[in-house]
Description:
CATH architecture: 3-Layer(aba) Sandwich
Radius of gyration: 18 Å
Number of strands: 6
Strand content: 5-15%
Number of domains: 1
Structural class: alpha/beta
Amino acid sequence: xxxxxxxxxxSRFGRLFAKPASRDxxxxxxxxxxIECLLNQNARDRGAAAxxxxxxxxxxxxxxxxxxxxxxxxPEIRFLGPDRARPPGIxxxxxxxxxxxxxxxxxxxxxxxxxxxxxxxQDVELLAILGGNPESPGCAVHPVGSDAEAPDAxxxxxxxxxxxxxxxxSIRVPFRGIRDCRPEWLEEDLRWLEERFRP
Length: 199
């Protein structure tokens, strides 16, 4: 059904559906790891979504530059369920920042490092880890001192454990929060991302 719809698509989508120049291997050989809610806003807690479906600015930028997206599972949903069940008065971060919550985040991180290693072994370049908004319990990215590309202790629990797992695997990659809670922050983050995508 999709091919039949393509002729009716506006010309601005032409590049997204263009055939690759080479038939031997059309892969762009570059990718980013993105948190689940950038690709599915339904994964966000009630009231936290910035878009009805996806962060289309990030997806469009990746498509425009031929950069793939590897989805990182939501630690809140994995650990607490879609409703983020917890006793009244207990914050989501308080639940994630427990031995069991951190173990859940370590399992996600170890799984992701395995996936990343597989791509790297195929000469596919990892450009960035894209986290979330500053208040995200699992996925916020706050920089360490002058190193604006590594998460610190204020960062989300998953971002902390993922940084540790990547470091243990000797994989160096910048982390960046995609802060779509404020338009001016999102614009700044998209400019940073576009710079990362330039050859």
